[in-house]
Amino acid sequence: MPSGSVSPIPLPSSHRAKIDTCIVTGCSSGIGKALSQLIASKGQRLVATARKLSALDYLPDDNPNILKQALDVTSQTSVDAAIAAALQRFGRLDVVVNNAGYTLYGDAENASDEDARKCVETDFWGMVRVSKHALRILREENPKTGQQGGVILNVSSMGGRIAFPGNAFYHASKFAMEGFTEALSKEVRPEWNSKSYPFDLAIY
Ligand SMILES: NC(=O)c1ccc[n+]([C@@H]2O[C@H](COP(=O)([O-])OP(=O)(O)OC[C@H]3O[C@@H](n4cnc5c(N)ncnc54)[C@H](OP(=O)(O)O)[C@@H]3O)[C@@H](O)[C@H]2O)c1
């Protein structure tokens, strides 16, 4: 990405200059893994999540600021359990990163309903599930341990703004993510001190 094209995403002002609690979905590889390593290296509290816990072996077991947690974003039970575990350990969430996602390659016409729905279920509905539960935590649980509010970052894509052949259900999911995120950010009341942002990634 060209340097200077990305503005820092601001935390609500009262969240700056202190230890934040971040939860990241899809930390087994790629961007989620790199982000987890970065957050851990900065001494922030991290809830690193993955479908298989063994995929988080790259993180230490004995760091009190790190919770490794199983999370499949297609399961409401799993989302609820992961957020409950994060609250039990750290008492709050400040930054929620919806990173888990994948693309389904191939012509739309030839994709099975099952495969297409699984892609949208993960990339769009998974993000919705986590965002809705997390927003309640930012608004109602965070005040019990300090400042109300926080930030929800939804990892979108250039493919959430323009579409190419061969990835129709991925694009559909990311376009939906962009719309949901924009609408949610306009629904959040200023006094909740919370924001939701799309984070449009593009690899050049
Ligand atoms: N890399 C790029 O070029 C690029 C560009 C634009 C946007 N993005 C976005 O960036 C995000 C991360 O992509 P990546 O490139 O880092 O890909 P990646 O290495 O394949 O990582 C995807 C992650 O999502 C997880 N995941 C898949 N299904 C899940 C589920 N049901 N529940 C929980 N986690 C699940 C995977 O876990 P498992 O190991 O369990 O499958 C993996 O940890 C995605 O949302 C992607 O759309 C990537």
Automatic annotation (TrEMBL):
Q: Which Pfam families match?
A: adh_short
Keywords assigned by UniProt, alphabetized? Oxidoreductase
Superkingdom of source: Eukaryota
Known Gene3D superfamilies for this protein? NAD(P)-binding Rossmann-like Domain (3.40.50.720)
GO MF, one annotated term: oxidoreductase activity
| Family listed | Belongs to the short-chain dehydrogenases/reductases (SDR) family.
- What name does UniProt use for this protein? NAD(P)-binding protein
Source species: Coniochaeta ligniaria NRRL 30616
